[in-house]
Every structure is written in C-alpha cells, then in structure tokens.
DNA sequence: ATGCCCGAGTCGCTCGGA
C-alpha cells in the first residue's frame, strides 16, 4: 500500500450519526479512522454496519458519554491498549490504541474541562499528564506512531476565529496549551500545522450562534506524528462536507495521508 | 453573567454536556 489515509472524527453519538459516518466512509475511503464520543455502550456499537462497509473495528464504549473506536479498511486493527496507564478515572472511555499497517495508532478523547476552574478542569489536566507520560513511552518504543483525536485544546489564537467569547474556556487556558506544547516538545509533529503553517484551519463549529454558517470554528482535532513519519506526510485536510449535512456532528473529519513507499 | 444547540430520558419538557 503506497498511501495511507488516517482520519480522526468526533462523531458526537454514533447511533444518531451512523448514516453520516457510512456516507463519509463510502465517499472518502479512509484507511484508518479514530472515532470519539461514541456516546454508546460497547454493546450498542454498530459493528455489523461498519463491517458491511468494509471496516474492521475495535471500540471502547461507555453508556451515554465518551467512547472511542478505531476502524481499519479491509483489515482488523490489532489492539495494543485500552485506557491510559494510571488513568485518573478508568470509568471514562477515552483512549484506545492499535497497530494497523505497521503503525501504532492512538485514538484519544481528551476531557473538555469546562467549567474552569473546577474539578472538571483538574481532571482534564490530570488526564493530559498521563497522556504525556504514555506518549513519551510510545516515542521511546521507536515505532511509527500517530496520536489522533479530539484534544480539546486550541493550540494558539490562530486556531480560533476569535477569542473574545472564549477567554474563560478550558480549551484555550494557558495550562491546557502548556500541556499541548509540552507534548509536542517530546518530538511530536502537529501534522496539519506542519503542512499549513499559516492557514486558518478549523475542525469544530459549535451548534450555538450559527457558528457553522459563519465559519466561526476551532481547531481542536489533531493528528500528531512521531519523527519517522514526518517525511512521509504527503497531505492533510478537513472534510467539511459532513459538517453541513442535516443532524451533523459539531466536528468535521480531519485526516492525513502518509506516503509509505520506500 | 448567561444563553445560544442538541440528544437522550424522565418523552413534547428537562437536563446537562462542552
């Protein structure tokens, strides 16, 4: 396989969003998909429909909230981990990891952290610390790794339409941004920003205030690459069209293409 | 300082996420 397309998509409820997911899989044919916010118990995961669409899958569900999954086109993801080591609250399904096509893919749903300050923000930062610890181990392993998901962090003010009404939001607090920068500082590359250092790129538009219609978005869904994958990064983007459909998720699928030709 | 939108459940309003 010369090219590998890896996507992350916060689906915001896989049951109500399944037609959109299947439509998107059929049209864009990503090789690997990280899903977040399944908002469904593991027993309610639509494995049959996804298999019929040509994808193997592993998932870590939870009733009502959170939930993550990894899909792989024409193959089965080989699960390497579910949940972070020393997860601050293992009842919340926020991490799953698999080997696919020779790459370790970590799929994460970082806590939102609002309102802040408060216990939810503390939990966000605690979870982030465990992610940073785990990510260091992944880099040390020497394997090619992609860490993809909803980080619930707006890395800089260039990743938001306007900070005015978000000043107190957990997604852009200095503590949240400092964690993200410290993660990058281990040696990870923010794939979309690497390819498009100056572009306005958004992956999320909330349901409030006509934010989609006015393109008032945030960039919070990220794909981080370990060092050996950076020279293989051929393309990246955001599929905006599923955000425009009726009953859309508030996130759009975000993807990279790796050229794995030696 | 708060609501905005949305899905799910206790259904046609309320609750709470983010």
UniProtKB/TrEMBL annotation:
How many cofactor units bind, and how? Probably binds two magnesium or manganese ions per subunit.
A Pfam family reported for this protein in Swiss-Prot or TrEMBL: Exo_endo_phos
Q: According to the UniProt entry, what is the EC number of this protein?
A: 3.1.11.2
Q: Biological process GO terms, please?
A: DNA repair
Q: Name one GO molecular function term.
A: endonuclease activity
Q: What class of enzyme is it?
A: hydrolase
Question: Could you identify this protein by its name?
Answer: Exodeoxyribonuclease III
Q: Please name the source species.
A: Halopseudomonas xinjiangensis
What is this organism's lineage?
Bacteria, Pseudomonadati, Pseudomonadota, Gammaproteobacteria, Pseudomonadales
The encoding gene is xth
């Amino acid at each position: 396989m010369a090219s590998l397309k890896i996507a992350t998509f916060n689906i915001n409820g896989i049951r109500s969003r399944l037609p959109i997911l299947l439509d998107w899989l059929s049209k864009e044919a990503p090789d690997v998909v990280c899903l977040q916010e399944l908002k469904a118990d593991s027993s309610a995961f639509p494995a049959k429909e996804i298999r019929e669409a040509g994808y193997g899958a592993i998932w870590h569900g939870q009733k009502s909230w959170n939930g993550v999954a990894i899909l792989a086109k024409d193959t089965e993801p080989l699960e390497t981990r579910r949940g972070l080591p020393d997860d601050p609250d293992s009842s919340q399904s926020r991490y799953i990891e698999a080997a696919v096509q020779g790459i370790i893919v970590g799929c994460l749903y970082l806590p939102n952290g609002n309102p802040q300050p408060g216990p939810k923000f503390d939990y966000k930062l605690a979870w982030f610390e465990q992610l940073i610890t785990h990510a260091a181990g992944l880099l040390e392993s020497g394997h090619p790794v992609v860490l993809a998901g909803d980080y619930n962090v707006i890395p800089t003010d260039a990743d938001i339409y306007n900070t005015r009404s978000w000043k107190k939001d957990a997604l852009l607090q200095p503590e949240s941004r400092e964690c993200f920068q410290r993660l990058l500082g281990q040696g990870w590359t923010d794939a979309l920003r690497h390819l498009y250092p100056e572009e306005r790129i958004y992956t999320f538009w909330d349901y409030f205030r006509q934010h989609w219609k006015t393109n008032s978005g945030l960039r919070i869904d990220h794909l981080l690459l370990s060092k050996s994958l950076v020279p293989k990064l051929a393309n990246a983007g955001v599929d905006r069209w599923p955000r425009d459909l009726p009953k859309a998720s508030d996130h759009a699928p975000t993807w990279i293409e790796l050229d794995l030709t030696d």
